[in-house]
Amino acid sequence: MVTPKKHLGQHFLTDLNIAKKIASTLKGDSYKKILEIGPGMGVMTQFLLERKDKDVYVNEIDKESIEYLKKNFPALKNKIIEGDFLKLDLEKEFPGKEIAVTGNFPYNISTQIVFKVLENKDKIPEFSGMFQKEVSERIAAKHGNKTYGILSVLAQNYYDVEYLFSVSEKVFNPPPKVKSGVIRLTRKEKQPDIEYDFFKKVVKTAFNQRRKTLRNSLKSYNLSDNLKQDSIFAKRPEQLSPEDFLDLAKKIKHDIR
Fold first, then answer.
1. Rounded to whole angstroms, how far apart are CA atoms 6 and 78?
2. Which of 11, 39, 48, 94 is the most exposed place for a label (fewest CB within 10 A)?
3. Residue 53 within any structural domain of the chain
4. Which helix H or strand E contains 152, and what residues bound it?
């Protein structure tokens, strides 16, 4: 047995039915490799390994979990990637290959995991897993919703986002203080034709002052008076759909050339 460690945000899933359900959320056939983040004692890994059409790898930072996996899952020989997922060079680990990413994610780094996936969107056609319910809902939120924000806009422009189901806090050891939610992101065939880093910066700048109109929150871009007359600048960020934000970023990019 592995002892859950608070500093790693570990809450081990104990319900096999839910573990199996999450493992089955990856539906794509364009890739052959799956990377599970934070497998712990392999409660979900065992079901991923049943998929004969996929090559399963795991990424784990906890030394105790790594030793447990090596001892109990011989199928993972040479497929345990040790270390912090946020520091992982996915192209180096999987050169020239697309991979799907899944897991029961540590809540303390879950939003950072989504940003890492977005940065590697060209390599990750499908992404699923369990988050704190509030984070899952934020990623899937529609514009006009108070939980709609940076993650919603970025994720929904590059992926089709589905909130799949909720999970009780009672099926974990130790039980977290919040409920969980499982989501799936499937990469869109048509990707936004704008530099990701620039787009991300525009969205973050807008939401950093979400109560203000875009005319005020985006002042730092020194936009032309002509562009600022566009009716979109009279709106607040949560009023814009993900597609509206894409149009906005393109207009700003063109204006500041």
1. 28
2. 94
3. yes
4. helix 150-158
Alpha-carbon span 233 to 241, nearest angstrom: 14
Length of the chain: 257
**What residues contact 5, with CB distance under 8 A and at least 6 apart?**
62
The residue type found at 148 is Y
The C-alpha atoms of residue 168 and residue 18 are separated, in whole angstroms, by 10
Range of the structural domain that residue 108 is part of: 6-187
Q: Report the distance separating Cα 168 and Cα 176, nearest Å.
A: 9
Please list, in sequence order, all residues whose beta carbon lies within 8 angstroms of the beta carbon of residue 110, skipping any fewer than 6 positions away.
131, 132, 135
Q: What is the pLDDT of residues 51-99, one digit of tens each?
A: 999 999 999 998 999 999 999 999 999 999 999 999 999 999 999 999 9
Domain containing residue 134: CATH number: 3.40.50.150
Bridge partners of residue 180, in order along the sequence: 132, 167
Contact call for residues 158 and 192 (beta carbons, < 8 A): yes
